[in-house]
């Protein structure tokens, strides 16, 4: 599990601004020192990062596309090994890159947090970039024993995850990097509530592509297929009545095909469709054991489309029922009933199935 | 012996008796802690205090209650006494053992309710265990604040027997006339109920022991592991069983092995426990190991069923890199 054992070692902030009326970039204000947070504050910041990067969070692993010497990935590699003073100076470059990546005039400014640290065991270097957009709120002030409210216009990094985006580069094994493939041995993860692979021209692209130089990975289609396959197996192995499994298979179809979400995410499926926390934990453990990513992946149905067209139910003695998946719930009613005992009324009462098809027979052989 | 002589002697020896009583009380409590690993503040349901008899009540007992002592000063053995009140009749036996094993006194059993029950099975009356313990020359020498051969009465009873005794003490036994047959009948009925209730209490305890066994066993395992792996002496507060009780359905035989594997792959968990144990109570409890494992294996249930505040489980989830907004 990659985001275990996170320690944030260095931290600096810069402020970036929205473009001016002529669409020119505005020079960022640079932080000139590392920020020393108290234990509580550092723990809270770590919670924010884990919330977006940890197991079961909805970050997406990306491909590192831009490995140019002037790009952010190269800068990140550099930042991992710089001493504090150089880190302070070089991190300004990230603020510049974010400013120029914000090409649209309506992209808001904000605080860019650059942090370095280690994660996992044995420890691996990590560099993170958080763009936090300010929002407002209140705080209570106690002046001369009178309680009052103070308005704060530039709150950042509150637990409201909608208001920050984060990208991290992780150094898995720097020895794997080559001149041709400088990003070998590195991984990139991004969290942004607005992110969507289907709609590349959206409000998030400047961040993951323009700024971080990442692209959606090509493995999305394969992973989406695996998700479908493994989840089907999980449902198959569940020790619950067959009738309930019909509902779960239907839910898998709904999640992939009908749900408007742009990503496939084990935790979200569990939360939305599984009946209780015990089943959700069991599902996540099952997927983890099959080494399926616990973070989000871009939903790409190209390899499962075929499987999603038909719903099939097989009976033990050769009877098969096939129906179009998109109309299955409307067309078919299935109910388990008590059967009739065998000859002479001996033995257990068998389970039979009553099927209602809300349609006429069109043809038969 | 005349009253005046008696009083003079008592006045001069009172402090010694008081010291002796204090010694007996302390010694028994210490041994209870050492021998049975008991928290005496909890085990003893009424604080045990040595009590030296008031001169007037002593005189009354010696000369005015028709007891006809041959040698009243020496024959009255409860000039100082210590009383121990416990919850269950089985607890009494623990104190019996401590009293009978001590090297600092000689003992005799003055009253034994179990024997009285055997002798008069049809009677429901005052029940308590009374010992007379007499200081040995060695004890006197070692301590130096009392002399040898001083008697002290040790009373041991259950909380319910104590309640009965408090009720009947003055009203029934001292003035002979006060006890009407109806009152006596009530007392006998109360004592019969007390005996029955004690039996029921024991049944409850036995049942609890069966139910608690998985928790007790898990706790032993965790305590040992904490000592071995973290390398410091853990707290073993009630917090541990509070948490284990909440997640009792997650305790199973595989726990031990799973915990070993889990910790072997994550030395940082132990490092974090060590670091935080200095100023955070939870990290000094053996159960913290269990919490880590559970949070890793079943994060949702751990977080949702977590019986304390979120702030306390958050660092553990963060250590394990678990995004916890389910």
From TrEMBL, chain A:
This is Nucleoid-associated protein. Pfam families: NA37. It comes from the Bacteria. The lineage of its organism: Bacteria, Pseudomonadati, Pseudomonadota, Alphaproteobacteria, Rhodospirillales. One of its GO terms (cellular component) is nucleoid. It comes from Terasakiella brassicae.
From TrEMBL, chain B:
It comes from the Bacteria. This is RelA/SpoT domain-containing protein. SMART domains: RelA_SpoT (SM00954). Gene3D superfamilies: Beta Polymerase, domain 2 (3.30.460.10). SUPFAM superfamilies: Nucleotidyltransferase. InterPro entries: NT_sf, RelA_SpoT. Residues 50-179 form the RelA/SpoT domain. Pfam families: RelA_SpoT (PF04607). It comes from Terasakiella brassicae. One of its GO terms (biological process) is guanosine tetraphosphate metabolic process.
